[in-house]
Backbone:
């Protein structure tokens, strides 16, 4: 079972100087590749990636995508990947050395269509957000609600055949768009709606070096997540394949926000929903 790892980057030359050597440390006896997508960078990113292709000794494919946006970049990268399993991580994440083998071990289960892995904080001085330290496996049955935050786009993998059935990431969602995020939750929702089983499994691990150290930085990021989450909920409710298993969790979410007095969160979620519906 071949594994492809897709990494999208835009104007992150300073971070890539730390990230790229981590891929050279991956160890596996099986075949794997890394697909880097340069998403319209204007800094030294293209030169860094070119040098890595030439000197790393790895099986590396470099893709250029001029349309800005994480979803557009991922859509440029995954169709060119050759692996049966296509994994996605971020340009500020460092996969553990056994990452490829742990992915392969998880996907030996033939019924598994998609997977999320553990995301740990790399720098203890960074704010403890955008991580998933859960130490036990959580199975996600077909046609069921995918809880936001259980699986992160920083450590997400799908079988290539599942991606081909689902279609592309929604380019209205994700970093670089007015809705900030949600492309990962949306693609998992669609996979579930098509009848694929998934799981969170802590074995494939990446370390997130996001470099946000203050409550203000964390708050701004989480506010964007609220908007993207609302957009994903709206899309799921508009889709007849997913409406049935999203309606009650979404209503429960709204009720919980009202009971807790989380009016600002609810307002941002409703704003994201309206933006998505309005188009």
Residues:
């Amino acid at each position: 079972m071949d594994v492809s790892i897709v990494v999208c980057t835009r104007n992150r030359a300073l971070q890539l100087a730390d990230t790229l050597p981590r891929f050279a440390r991956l160890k596996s006896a099986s075949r794997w590749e890394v697909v880097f997508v340069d998403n319209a960078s204007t800094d030294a990113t293209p030169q860094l990636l070119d040098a890595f292709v030439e000197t790393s000794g790895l099986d590396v494919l470099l893709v250029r995508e001029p349309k800005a946006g994480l979803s557009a970049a991922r859509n440029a990268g995954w169709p060119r990947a050759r692996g049966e399993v296509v994994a996605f991580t971020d340009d500020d994440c460092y996969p553990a050395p056994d990452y490829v083998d742990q992915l392969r071990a998880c996907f030996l289960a033939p019924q598994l269509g998609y997977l999320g892995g553990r995301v740990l904080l790399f720098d203890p001085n960074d704010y403890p957000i955008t991580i998933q330290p859960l130490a036990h496996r959580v199975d996600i049955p077909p046609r069921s609600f995918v809880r936001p935050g259980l699986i992160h786009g920083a450590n997400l993998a799908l079988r290539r055949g599942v991606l081909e059935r689902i279609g592309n990431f929604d380019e209205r969602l994700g970093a670089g768009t007015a809705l900030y995020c949600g492309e990962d939750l949306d693609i998992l929702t669609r996979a579930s709606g098509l009848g694929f089983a998934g799981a969170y499994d802590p074995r494939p691990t990446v370390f997130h070096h996001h470099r946000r150290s203050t409550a203000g930085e964390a708050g701004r990021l989480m506010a964007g997540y609220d908007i993207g989450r609302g957009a994903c909920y709206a899309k799921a409710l508009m889709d007849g394949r997913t409406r049935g298993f999203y309606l009650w969790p979404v209503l429960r979410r709204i009720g919980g926000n009202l009971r807790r007095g989380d009016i600002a969160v609810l307002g941002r979620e409703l704003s994201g929903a309206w933006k998505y519906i309005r188009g």
User: Anything to note?
Assistant: The chain has nine helices and nine strands.
